[in-house]
What does this fold into?
Amino acid sequence: MKRPAGRYLAYLFQFLIAVNILIALSFGEYSQVFTGVIGLFLTLVPAIATHKWSITLPWQVNLLIAFLLYLHVAGEIQGYYLLYYPYYDKIAHLIAGITVSILAFVIVLLLDRFSRLNLSRWMIVGFIIIAAMAMEGFWEIYEWLFDTFLGTNLQHGLDDTMLDMIFVLIGSIIVALVGNRRLQEFSKEEITDGLVIAEEDPTG
It folds into this structure.
């Protein structure tokens, strides 16, 4: 089966993350190397999930994950966060909100299907927003820890942190609204079949 072009774009972003890691290593910026390595690993999580649970996420999700992590790694190592502040930072957080919310939508539908939770539409929509905001909360803690103990400059005051959270919230609301519409038009099983394809399915 022919692979979609978007999958190769995801590979490109993974390659660019690796290049940025080498750049940070050459300058002795080890905290940025650590960030880059974590980012590169996270781009591999969909492939790990595919192997472990015999499921395949849509290529659009893989591309979003790789693109988001490239934005963050390049923003740190290439200085884009400061060079194009605040626009680069807020766009990255908006994309983060959208990406995490889509993943949350997929995960909660899978849990509902295979754990027989029988969640209502509003519980699923609420989970999307809660998951995205929880991720953002952990992200801000991560930035604070790095600034406090490693002397980085990831946070730029309370207003910056609050705007980061607001842009993630906007992204999560967009996905929640789209997800709510999908749940009105299709059953949960139909959406799950469209989002996650079992490898053993010969038609997949």
Q: What stands out?
A: The two ends are 9 Å apart (CA to CA).
